[in-house]
Amino acid sequence: MSLIDQPLSAEKFSLVAFDLDGTVLDSVKRTISPRVQHALQAIRDRGAQTAVVSGRPLHMLGKTLLTAHWVDWFVTTNGALILNAHTCKHIFESVMSHTVIASIFDMLADLQPAWMLCSEHMSYREKRGVTYLAGQSSSLNTQSPQKIMQILSDVNFVDSLPGALHEISVPIYKIGVSFPSHSRSTEAVKRLKRQGGLEVFIMSPIELEITLSGVDKGAAIRHICGVENLDIAHSVAFGDSGNDIAMAGAVGTFVAMANGTEAVRKAADFICPPITEDGVATWLEARMPKAQRG
Q1: Is 193 exposed, middle or buried (0-12, 13-18, 19+ CB in 10 A)?
Q2: What is residue 100's DSSP assignment?
């Protein structure tokens, strides 16, 4: 159900969910503007619950979010792990077995993939992926490989994840993969969809994210609303990229960032200003009394 024709005022929101990178978080500076933080706090003060809904694993959310009293839920790794932000209790998790991971590795081996495996407190990335990111990725393509490795300092870099898989004992919730060209990424999507049993998210022309079937951000929001008995028709979500589209079919109102991809903007009920103009805060403030605006 879309509320585009009857936009709710802030006091009626049940849940406000927001993506991070490209939506509220500067990926390089790793900061959320004070104005956006204030707007989310004001929304929570008016009775809504709030949820970080990210492709990032928990350990990559950053101190600001992990210690924020204005966040109620952490939806990480595209919905494969959901935690109560106040108690850190898991309310849902979807773990990818080594057998499934190895089969994906084998399926795409000839396409020169650079793999990443995400767990709750630790993630692993192949070193050659940094070269791909520096060359073509949307958020980091202005950075040198050395700078990218500094930005991604909370990731363990390895030479080969297929070779190291047997040494990894922590639960893996999501696979990330990048390729040296768009054509190879496109071929990978075709193979993965033929395989079945997986959700495939196109993050950029050369980047994909993979979870088990039925695991996405929209499903995570439905799960939270079910657990908390929240009216999902009165929920709002903000996003900018491929893994956010699943929220458009789940929430009452989906708001795309003006800096978002064309596919995300087409799926949206509203488009707010870009992240550089604190678009999430702008949209929320317009639905709050003037006294509570940032």
Answers
A1: exposed
A2: H
Contacts of 208 (CB under 8 A, 6+ apart): 176, 177, 178, 185, 188, 189, 192, 200, 201, 202
The separation between CA 11 and the C-alpha centre of its own chain, rounded to angstroms, equals 26
Give the whole-angstrom CA distance, residue 120 versus residue 245: 23
Q: Say if pTM beats, i.e. exceeds, 0.90.
A: no
For residue 171, CA distances in Å to 15, 78, 95, 153 come to: 28, 15, 6, 21
As a whole number of angstroms, the distance between CA 93 and CA 111 comes to 30
- Going from the C-alpha of 47 to that of each of 9, 19, 235, 288, the distances in angstroms are 12, 20, 12, 12
Closest CA to 43 of 6, 15, 19, 63: 15
Please give the domain boundaries of the chain with CATH numbers for all domains.
Answer: 10-93+215-292 (3.40.50.1000), 98-212 (3.30.1240.10)
Could you give the angle at which helices 98-107 and 182-195 cross, rounded to 10 degrees? 130
Residues forming a β-bridge with 253: 236
Residue 187's identity, in one-letter code, is: E
Tens digits of residue pLDDT in 145-183? 555 445 455 678 889 999 999 999 999 999 999 999 999
Do strands 73-76 and 81-84 pair parallel, antiparallel, or not at all (unpaired)?
antiparallel
